[in-house]
């Protein structure tokens, strides 16, 4: 490894270093605030490292291959940056979440500090995955991400103030994800084995050569690729591999839901994009038609099932299934500059919007927690459960700014102008027209129309003008300053890139 | 810059109205009134342009005023606002109806007044954007922007079934406009493939060479979006619900302005962009128009709810607009434009009157109303005026409009016109029946109760002046319609020139330039404008 190669993986090194420092810090001196500050510093340092590497890359070299396992280029760095920014938001949300649920004074009853170590581990896995160019690094990164996610999903158990029901659901979500994710990993690993058996290589470049002469050989390679695709579809929760999504999303602590929905999916989309582009799998009609079918199924099933949800987190889970379906439409137009531009734009829109939506939901739940610590309130009443739609009745009149942020997120998810979601949807349409995929476009239109219904129902619940006096217990929602700043910046980004998309387009095209 | 200023004033006025309603608890109405007056005054500055240079438009296709700024160069999208005769008429209608609605419902809104006027002004700003945008992307942008505040207006301040009505309204318009978005993107993509020029500019897309099949499909995408908004027969079902459940001011905006955006879109975009396809589609569209006329009249006749009756009469009247537009000759199209204006005035007034009745008597059910003339003479007299205006009494604007539409379309399609003309009889029936049941006849129990408790108050001077000025305007349009025709003439000629050319050369096959033979494929690589790199 030359010095240049070491420098190229600076963000990964920073994250690893941060993990070690945090481990040592926590073993000697426990402190929630200190741990969160260390993790934030690590994340910010990693972001600066991304810029630093990008600065090095511009001087003549397009990409740096690091030992054949990793390939660092502009696109990978852009994804790293996006995911790290999302992780910053998750860390802030997590701090607010744990603050309400962990007793500060009593030692040895709850350990909120591990949250940040696990978060950094997830980020190390995600950033490595984004840079992977070899199945070894690909598999390691994917597993690192998943393994760190299992305890995070069940993290509500750590908080001694969490209501019993939250702890149960959180455990349930962790175990569900563990079992199904292990299964999908096994399938993916088997796929990799078949690919290796058929081609004798494990790096993406070698597979590209094998794919190029695919029509001569047996279909072992194709089988392997399909199995690998299934493993990725599981992580992306594409229909029919989506069954875990609503339960896991609902049960997990809300910051972790945001993490798994943005970082978990974003990293897989990034590696899928790189894998398909490098090995030119778009040329294989089998794989593209499989993807097209899952995309249509995801758009329709995701939106239809979301129609029936009253729990906001389940609703957002189904809606995220549909959104990945839209994204696949742009993905499918193949190995063109426009295709990856559309995918990246849509992914940015998806990450900002999803993060924002879960942030609002999580912060509202935190504020409800603050008013009734330990779940003292009657939680079965739908108007006092902060994840039920009824809880949002008249929110606009109670706390207008918060409601405006959530409204912006919902409108962006629905793809209404002035928001980044609209430009994302415009990209999807442009991509679909270029690829002349009319069936997929029809599915997008139908899916969007269905989606409007449940987004609007939630939006209109917030402006209901007759708040029942019985639910007056939920007064104005008070959220912490850090949460407010986070929400404002997410909303500002959403509007900025929605009204002046050229800024972001320029960044993406400079990759 | 004047156009941008008008839109900006309304947007900013809306935000100020909300803030002042929220922080001070008062002043939002005056802010709204002031910003609307300011916008109207700015628009008034174009009037001398027209009188001084009336022949400017007839020579070339010059805008009265335009503003073009680059917005998203990646896709050749620019912020392009322009106004011509047609646009000016629509803008004047929008702002005047905005003022009318504001004044008529001055005291109606008690709940969250600031937020109400925020939505009210944003609807108007969005509609003005729709009427002035000459970039298809920008047009679509404003087309959607005007929907959200309308949604809130219905959902928050509406009557009993408001949530259902609001969601239905939104899903109908949004789903159809997604089809239009696909059509817009498809049109731009085909234009780019054939000419190498990536642009959403309306003027440049007019010269797009598209194969007839593709043009037909794209035309349908536009047509469906506009037909839903118009609304035309099979896709009109959102309208009765939305109109009935909306608050009075919302109904006025919906009927007077939002429906007109559909007709405007047909005239401005569908006909000129796809002349051949429009000629081929014209018989279907005219049939839909005529059926809407009849169907709207029949259903209006059958309603119990007064507001629903007026809503169905809108379906009927907008059927005339569709009929006139697709007759594809100057007389009928001029008639359609006149119908847009006259229908805006008369229906807005009728909705305002129903709203006034509802506020006084707390019902719109015609079975409970009756014999109101005795207690409400002024209101009843004015209602009579607008009811007969709506049925097309000669001497008023609506008569001129419907007469011209029928005259023009008789030339194009005799039998369809005959069918549509029957609708006039229906209009007389439902309008007069409404008068009979509500204002004449025996006084029912309900309003005697109401008079017993508190005397029902007739129209106050503010409402009377607002309604009478609309009445005067309708009389003026009926007696001297020529200025409207003069203003609209260049735009109409421009829109129809290509359709008429297409009609004459129908049969001669144009060289197909389909997407398969296109010289380019894929969207262009972005022209990066010096963005930062990572």
* Overall tally of domains of chain B: 2
Low-confidence stretches of chain A: 469-473
Point out poorly predicted stretches of chain B: 54-60, 508-518, 528-534
Largest sheet of chain A: 2 strands, antiparallel
Total strand count of chain B, please?
Answer: 2
Short description:
Chain A is mostly helical and 511 residues long. Chain A has helices at 3-8, 10-28, 32-58, 74-101, 114-131, 135-153, 164-199, 204-212, 220-235, 244-251, 254-279, 285-306, 312-331, 337-371, 395-398, 400-414, 420-435, 438-462, 481-499, 501-509; strands spanning 63-66, 70-73. Chain A has a domain at 284-511.
Note down, in words, how this protein is organized.
The complex is a heterodimer of chains A (about 500) and B (about 525). By secondary structure, chain A is an all-alpha fold. Chain A has a domain at about 285-510. In chain A, about 75% of the residues lie in helices and about 0% in strands. Chain A contains 20 helices and 2 strands. Chain A has a two-stranded antiparallel ribbon with strand order 1-2. In chain A, helix 14 (about 335-370) packs antiparallel against helix 17 (about 420-435). Chain A is globular. Chain A starts with a helix and ends with a helix. Chain B has helices at about 1-25, 30-45, 45-50, 55-60, 85-105, 115-130, 135-145, 145-155, 160-195, 200-205, 210-230, 240-245, 250-275, 275-300, 305-325, 330-360, 375-390, 395-410, 415-440, 445-455, 460-480, 480-505, and strands at about 65-70, 75-85. Helices cover about 75% and strands about 5% of the residues of chain B. Chain B is globular. In chain B, helix 5 packs antiparallel against helix 13 (about 250-275), helix 12 (about 240-245) packs antiparallel against helix 13 and helix 17 (about 375-390) packs parallel to helix 21 (about 460-480). With about 525 residues, chain B is mainly alpha-helical. Chain B folds into 2 domains: about 1-50 and about 65-270; about 275-505, no CATH class. Chain B has 22 helices and 2 strands. Chains A and B meet through helix 3, helix 4, helix 14, helix 17 and helix 18 of A and helix 7, helix 8 and helix 9 of B. Chain B: It is found in: Endomembrane system; Membrane. Chain B: It is a multi-pass membrane protein. Chain B: One of its GO terms (molecular function) is NADH dehydrogenase (ubiquinone) activity. Chain B: Its main location: membrane.
